[in-house]
Amino acid sequence: MLKTAAMIYPIEEYKTLLMERLTEKRYFHSLGVMKEAVRLAKKYGADVEKARVVGLLHDITKDMPAGQQLKYIRENGIIMDKISAPSPKLWHAITGAHLIRVQLGITDEDMLNAVRYHTTARAGMSLLEKTLYLADYTSEDRDYNGVEDMRRDVEVSMEKAMHTALQFSICDLCERDLTIHPDTIDAWNELVAKQ
Ligand SMILES: [Fe+2]
Ligand SMILES: [Fe+2]
What we know:
Layout: H1 11-21, H2 24-44, H3 48-57, H4 66-75, H5 88-102, H6 109-116, H7 127-138, H8 147-156, H9 158-175, H10 182-194
Helix pairs in contact: 2-3, 2-7, 3-6, 3-7, 4-5, 5-6, 6-7, 7-9, 8-9, 9-10
């Protein structure tokens, strides 16, 4: 069987693009997540190059104003579920995954899913999806309450870190009286059922 050549991703071009689209703070966050995603990929065996790209690009649309994102969603015929539709914070994962496919030509399903589910998580996440989800919690620029626990647990195992991250996320949303996306609940239920 012929082996197809691995796609070469133009990291420096992506960085230039991000500098135009993101605030300085978000740009440095993206670099931090890239670095952490690469580290975790090496530690847990995910594809390092894919982790580097999704780490760098995961928040590519996060600084796009909500109105513009909604316009993008409508113009591209993206159908949102009833929890995502009124939650602008969830839109950048949807528009980001779409944009990197359509405008940057990234077609790898695992990479697209990693970006698509980096905010909510979901049941049945791949190694690459978990790598990005966790790197977004433990990148060096993060300083939220509880980040030290996350950094400790991500060294223990991915399952332990996923448990801590999902518990943190669900409890935080609950305390702030915010909706919890069913994908997050599914991820949590799957993890707890396995214990
Ligand atoms: Fe994000
Ligand atoms: Fe992020």
